[in-house]
Amino acid sequence: MKILAIDTSSKICSVAILEDEKTIIELHNDDEKTHSVKLMPLVDKAFLETGLSLDDIGLLVCSIGPGSFTGVRIGIATIKAFADVKNIPVVGVTSLESLAYNVGAIIYNAHIKDISENKELYQGITPIDPLEDTVICSLIDAKNENVYAGLYHFANGNCECLSLFTENIHEVITQIATKISNFGHIVFVGDGSEVYADLLKASFGYGIFAVNASADTDASSVAGEHANISAIFALRGQNKQNGVSLAKAGLNKYKQGQYGDSSSLSPIYLRKSQAERALAEKIEILPMTLEDIAVIEPNFEKEFDTFWNINTLKNDFQNENATYLIAKLDGEIVGFAGFLNICKEANLMNIVTKIDKRNLGVGSKLLEALIASAKSQGCTSITLEVNSKNYPAIHLYEKFNFKRIGLRKKYYNNTDDAIIMTSPI
User: Fold this and answer.
1) Among residues 107, 395, 61, 13, which one has the least CA distance to residue 248?
2) Distance between CA atoms of 219 and 208, rounded to whole angstroms?
3) Partners of 119 in the beta sheet?
């Protein structure tokens, strides 16, 4: 299968065509201010030099961020147009996961080769363990000591996302140490790993840092604050996003059934704008009461969702194992959500946002509060079902590190499939 991948999320505009995992062509332009002008000529050039056309493409892949707001939208809009015209399936991949693919499949062999070619640099230093003991941390610099970060683990040919977050680099380091205590090595990749290299070196122990084999490389061991974790830097050339790694990540997701039509693509920014953050702070999360149900009942299906029945909500609310919350914005009920605590496993019943208040962060606030409530009740995991075509909800759950564990065919109205997802808490 031939794959066309487009990455416009960073300073580099990259276009690649692959035959499965074999690269046919890769082109790029390094001027981020001209992505809107240079993207289509790059695509045309790629087709011209390979003798291919859009009719030959079986899968479209694009970066969905985080990264440049404008750049991400340019790539998504282009892929959406191609998908709609030719009815080609699409896969969206985060720029963080794409970076992980820069090193995930080759990190062990790359370091072994580097060691063999620079023996004097590594004298007395043991090479890294196999990839199974290694976590990859993608770091994208978001300025002012903030980063976009993603933790990934490659096993059995698959890439598992362990966590996604955007915070101050100091807080990220603390979270990393907490989340990867079962692993022995961490590989840092992305421009953030270069910007904050000194801080990362001071925080983690390391035995091999000389992967670039440059004159100023320090290959000595450092007993950092988290010295039980050996930190390694990716090769300098691997710190940039590119279409080839993006395509490989997209192909892997496609094989796992994680693809859709053009409507499945939406940007993932992780870090909200200042206006969005200010609005989110105004959203109140409170326990639901019978009075709240009475308030939303008169226009329930019109204002919330025709899928949900008010009588079903009432019955679920009165279940002794149920916990229901509401979201209020300026005193108005703008959403609700609930779960059942069954043998210390939280079963998410629903997350519903008022139709005219969607995309404001209401769902995220409700889900965050539900997870905290379930954890306080002693639950160790949370499970849910989501319509396979409800792409915004799927993106929300994936942002909270929910993993797909199953599929129920024609679960909704005997038509749409339900994806089963779960997350430890």
Assistant:
1) 61
2) 6
3) none
Q: What's the pTM?
A: 0.73
CA distances from 272 to 78, 195, 280, 326 (A): 23, 22, 9, 22
Query: How many whole angstroms separate alpha carbon 85 and alpha carbon 134?
Result: 42
Per-residue pLDDT, 139: 95
By CB neighbour count within 10 A (0-12 exposed, 13-18 middle, 19+ buried), where does 227 fall? middle
SS3 47: helix
Q: 99-232 has which CATH code? A: 3.30.420.40
As annotated, the residues of the chain forming the CATH 3.30.420.40 domain(s) are 2-95+244-264, 99-232
Pairwise CA distance, residues 188 & 136, whole Å: 6
CATH class of 274-424: alpha beta
Q: Which ranges of 283-407 would DSSP assign to H, the alpha helix?
A: 290-296, 300-303, 310-317, 362-376, 391-399
DSSP three-state, residue 3? strand
Burial class (CB in 10 A: 0-12, 13-18, 19+), 186: buried
| Both structure tokens of 393 | 């909800």
Distance between CA 180 and CA 236 in Å, rounded? 24
Percent of the chain residues past pLDDT 70, beyond the cut: 84
**Where in the chain do CATH 3.40.630.30 domains reside?**
274-424
Chain centroid, CA 7 distance in Å: 15
Q: How many residues does the chain have?
A: 425
Q: What is the pLDDT of residues 389-420, one digit of tens each?
A: 888 888 889 888 898 999 999 888 888 899 99
* Residue in 246, 315, 294 with CA at minimum distance from that of residue 91: 246
Low-confidence stretches of the chain (pLDDT < 70) are: 32-33, 105-132, 156-157, 205-229, 270-277
Domain 2-95+244-264 architecture: 2-Layer Sandwich (3.30)
Peptide bond into 130 cis (omega under 30): no
Quote the tokens at residue 283. Answer: 């959203």
Specify whether the CB–CB gap between 42 and 27 falls below 8 A: yes
For residue 235, give the nearest of 114, 411, 150, 137 by alpha carbon: 114
